[in-house]
Specification:
about 150 residues; alpha+beta; Aminopeptidase; 5-stranded mixed β-sheet; about 25% strand
Length: about 150
Amino acid sequence: MFRLITESDRESYFEMSKCFYSSGAAIKEIDDAKRNVFWCEILKAQQIKGYIFEEDGKHAGYALTVEYPSQEYGGTVLWVDELFVKPEFRGRKIARKFFAFAESICENVALRLEAEPDNERAIKLYERLGFEKLPYLQMVKTKRTNLQRFI
């Protein structure tokens, strides 16, 4: 049901990623130049790992994860950076099964993720799975880069 993304998944991943970024689950949409740069990182599977969800012989969704050491949690944390299930596969407990799988793939002491505040369906699922809201305000500073150098 869950397997690492391979080069042959590119077209399907790009399609699902576009749906994810236009669904309201992310703050803003991204362009294919950024998606292509990130695709190369996923295939390296060094810092970030991509997983394809398969159901009934079809691609049902994907997830991207990153492991990082955390002094705060006293061990390795698995960050679920993106998780997307195609609409026609929702309600089949695929996300729930992925989180059980995610807990088994590394010796992590915690799982972390973020959700858009108005994504109530996802937040309710995460809370049922034992996730707690954190009192942190996330901040970001982006650097201007020329993505063309990566393409």
